[in-house]
Design goal:
By secondary structure, the protein is an alpha+beta fold. It has four helices and twelve strands. It has one domain: Glutamine Phosphoribosylpyrophosphate, subunit 1, domain 1 (4-Layer Sandwich), CATH 3.60.20.
């Protein structure tokens, strides 16, 4: 599995997703500007670790299904529904799987939520998560400092701290951070150099 560090945190007023930009395969750095954080709908996003091509196909397919759902039912799908659609697509391909560990997060009528999916489609609801080769280091920081009721700004700072720790110790991760915040007012994407 290619290296990566991808992190998600649930806050009181939204969710924050982030992933570093390095696309590596073993010790070979293929790109220093890969995008691993994707907007699926106006209130749902995904961040992935694994093969970038698999991530791109998977998120586009989920986005298509969710747009059809919204059109047919005249209402947006929930974050849980988005995670279940992705899980079904992953399980459908279990014999020739997409090589991607994914975090799906967003905000709906029930509030902000986050789900972690493995390459075979298991869905786990959580308040914070990290996937990829740098996840063990990032989770250590998240476990030590996560508190219920963080604001989105506090969540971003926590993610930056966890990512800095992982990027300093994981050779497969690096070259800055893409951060997506999802609140009731919409989706905002920004980059962070993390020197």
């Amino acid at each position: 599995m290619p290296g990566a560090t991808t992190i998600g945190v649930v806050c009181k007023d939204g969710v924050v997703l982030a992933s570093e930009r390095r696309v590596s395969y073993g010790y070979f750095v293929m790109s220093k500007s890969g995008k691993k954080v994707f907007q699926i709908t106006d209130s749902i996003g995904a961040a992935c670790a694994g093969l970038v091509a698999d991530m791109q196909v998977l998120t586009k397919e989920v986005a298509a299904y969710l747009h059809m759902y919204a059109y047919e039912r005249d209402r947006a799908a929930s974050v849980r529904s988005a995670a279940k659609v992705m899980a079904n697509l992953l399980f459908e391909r279990r014999l020739f799987p997409y090589l991607a560990q994914t975090i799906v997060a967003g905000i709906d009528e029930e509030g902000p939520s986050l789900y972690v999916l493995d390459p075979l489609g298991s869905v786990i609801d959580d308040k914070y998560a990290s996937v990829g080769s740098g996840s063990e280091i990032a989770v250590g920081v998240l476990e030590a400092e996560f508190k219920e009721g963080l604001s989105v700004d506090q969540g971003k700072e926590l993610i930056k701290k966890a990512a800095k720790a992982a990027l300093a110790r994981d050779i497969g991760s690096g070259n800055g951070l893409d951060i997506m915040t999802i609140t009731k007012s919409g989706v905002k994407e920004e980059g962070e150099p993390l020197t």
